[in-house]
Design a protein that fits this description.
Blueprint lengths: L1 H15 L6 E9 L7 E11 L8 E10 L1 E11 L3 E11 L3 E8 L10 H8 L8 E7 L7 E6 L8 E5 L9 E3 L2 H4 L8 E6 L2 E3 L3 E2 L1 E8 L12 H11 L2
Parallel strand pairs: 10-14
Antiparallel strand pairs: 1-2, 2-5, 3-4, 3-6, 6-7, 8-9, 8-11, 9-10, 11-14, 12-13
């Protein structure tokens, strides 16, 4: 049956190639309450599929905790279907954590799925960006980014970000009020609270900082090696 689906998608892609590309709109709504061991994120997807990139057979929704940084998890694998449909997924998560949800296609039947072509086909903004959204889950105030603010020459954000090792948000820049901008280029390591909506074609996803709290980055673990091991590593590297 999977082979039949692959062939059918290929035929339909040819038939629909003259039409507009598809899109996937991802919206997140967190739910939490004091005293509960778990929280949830309601994941709403609006999928318009015109049959492009038929080698990508599934729409995969992934989630990763970005602060504190956590492991990657598959939330849902959705078979392709022509047309427009709305789907809702309720995902159980850890309270007081920030998350990034994103959509990719990681499985194919026949030729490999071209992940960049998939993004170009379904990015709702039309630039081939990642199909993603960020959310913070309470009930306590929860930071989204941890790092330092540095000067950027880009005209859209107020600052760029240098991330701490325990932050895996991937958010590259942000905006904030004068009390936030005062930290730019000071080297101060900060917890940044706020939201990270899509900005624009030049900025992508940027954090809109509502509060910045100084807190040192977590130390980076360095594996202990004795001197003879280090000499061998250097010798091997310089051969």
């Amino acid at each position: 049956m999977k082979v039949t689906l692959w062939v059918a998608m290929g035929v339909l892609a040819c038939a629909t190639s003259a039409f507009a590309r598809g899109s996937i709109i991802l919206t997140l709504t967190p739910y939490s309450a004091p005293g509960l061991a778990t929280a949830t994120v309601q994941v709403d997807l609006t999928i318009t599929d015109t049959g492009g990139v038929p080698d990508c057979m599934f729409i995969d929704v992934y989630r990763r905790a970005v602060y504190p940084c956590g492991s990657l998890g598959l939330v849902q694998r959705i078979p392709r279907q022509l047309g427009t449909r709305s789907l809702q997924i309720v995902d159980t998560v850890t309270p007081n954590t920030s998350y990034r949800y994103f959509v990719v296609s990681t499985q194919s039947i026949g030729p490999p799925c071209d992940s960049q072509a998939f993004q170009r086909e379904f990015d709702p903004y039309g630039y081939g960006f990642d199909i993603q959204a960020y959310t913070t889950v309470g009930p306590d105030p929860t930071p989204l980014v941890k790092g330092r603010l540095v000067t950027t020459n880009d005209a859209t954000p107020n600052f760029a970000l240098e991330h701490c090792s325990d932050d895996c948000s991937g958010i590259w820049a942000g905006v904030g009020g004068p009390e936030v901008r005062a930290y730019v280029d000071t080297g101060t390591e900060l917890l940044l609270y706020g939201t990270a909506p899509y900005c624009c074609s030049t900025g992508g996803w940027m954090i809109q900082v509502t509060n910045a709290v100084p807190q040192p980055c977590a130390p980076v673990d360095v594996e202990a090696r004795d001197w003879s091991d280090l000499k061998m590593l250097y010798r091997d590297a310089t051969r």
